[in-house]
Amino acid sequence: MSITISYEVANFIMYTLGAALIVVIIITFINLNKFIKRMDRLVEKNENNINKTADTIPDIVKNVNDVTLGVKQSVDKVGDAIEAVETSVCDTILAVSEGTEGLFDFVGIAGEVINTLLKMFPFGKRK
């Protein structure tokens, strides 16, 4: 089964599709032109605000850089403080552990002395 289309019908279809495509393109350009005109009015209406904002951008960037530098310096100071606290805590722990070793030695010696004294004087023992 084959369908044959005459040359005139094929030309009609092609011309109709071409005309429809041209109409779509024209409508698209009209809408694009309206959009560009609205954007132009919007920019003209806000030109002063846009210029003011553009003038303040360098100051904003400078402020951001200053804040960033301040934060970095604060973080560095906090790091130094943490290192100092760490060193102090480590020194304290060492001193306490050395002190407890000395205390344990003293308690051990005192215990030996007391034990020896108790052996010399027999309390509660009957001969």
UniProtKB/TrEMBL annotation:
The chain crosses the membrane at residues 12-32. It comes from the Bacteria. This is DUF948 domain-containing protein. Keywords: Membrane, Transmembrane, Transmembrane helix. It comes from Acetivibrio mesophilus.
